[in-house]
Amino acid sequence: MLSDREAKELLNFLTLETRPDVKGQATEYILGLTGTKDGCRYLRGKPDFLKALLTLTSDLSVAIVKDCYHALINLSADETLHRALVQDANILPVLFSNLLDPTYMFADRICTILTNLTRHEKTCKDVFKVFQEEHIGLAKIVEILCTDDYNKTASLHYLGPLLSNLTQLPEARQFILDKERCVVQRLLPYTQYEASMVKRGGVIGTLRNCCFDHAYHEWLLSDAVDILPFLLLPLAGPEELTEEENEGLPVDLQYLPEDKKREGDPDVRKMLIETLLLLTATQAGRQILKSKNVYPIMREFHKWETEPSVISACEKLVQVLIGDEPEPGMENLMEVEIPEDVEMKLQDLDAKEQEQIEKEQEELIRAATEENTAREQS
Description:
This protein is an all-alpha fold. The chain has helices spanning 4-13, 20-34, 37-44, 47-55, 62-76, 82-88, 92-100, 107-117, 121-133, 137-145, 159-166, 170-176, 183-187, 197-210, 217-221, 228-232, 243-248, 266-279, 283-291, 294-304, 308-322, 340-377.
């Protein structure tokens, strides 16, 4: 790494006043450092460099600004840098200000940095706190997310994962689930947002996180929100159901066309199923999902799905849908206290199940590789 003298000399070049060619070489060097783990850890103890990168995001040179944002993205991907970035370098106020500017061409890079910073709960709390201190609030983030042309030079799709990360916090979920604000209702159409898997997945992740608050399950499934069709439709295919099965489904899922396609991303499909599974944790939720004929949709989905981890999630949901009700006193599965020895056994079973899933995934990859090789040779 750099000696103290070299570091001081390099820092002197990272200013707005420095000659563009020298400044460009300096930012390129810093960008190279952030591409390695050791480089990131070195910069962790150099808040002046982090502040200089932030300052240079307002440089006149587009190339220099790109390099600075690229470096900040790399740094924010390392959890050990979060404190240095958020507290020592205090990057959030500037990032928020630029994000809200509808003409700012680097807003997508800001979304990526904020998404990285909010992955872990501790820094997520810091980001949420600064949101409030800067008088931005989640209302503005949701408004931008739901306005497709808010910034004509940036897609802002990564606001979806950012919102998902923020809803790991109870206070963020309370805002989304506020019955007077109708925020959830604004987000629901994006479960089928075809223009971006990132945005679609972020919104579904947000809905999944909100479903951890079981007190809202009945409201989410009621006509006031009607979340169920928005979760089920991406999982439904073109298979022909019986008339009786169709009639029991929500209207939007009845008699689907022959060209109906399911959600294409396995991680998003898994999140949708996990959200449905969370909704079955309460007695009211289970009764509604059973009465709305969710089982035939999941039965056909199970026949179609090939991804082992998604199949496993589907099977857990099906077991709840076709199983008997829990014993009295255990109606709310989120409130059931599990004895320590049973919990350890369950964790062991989960670990074995994950091992089996990974083994099946490796076999699928190997089979696909062999098939491609045979095709190329022929």
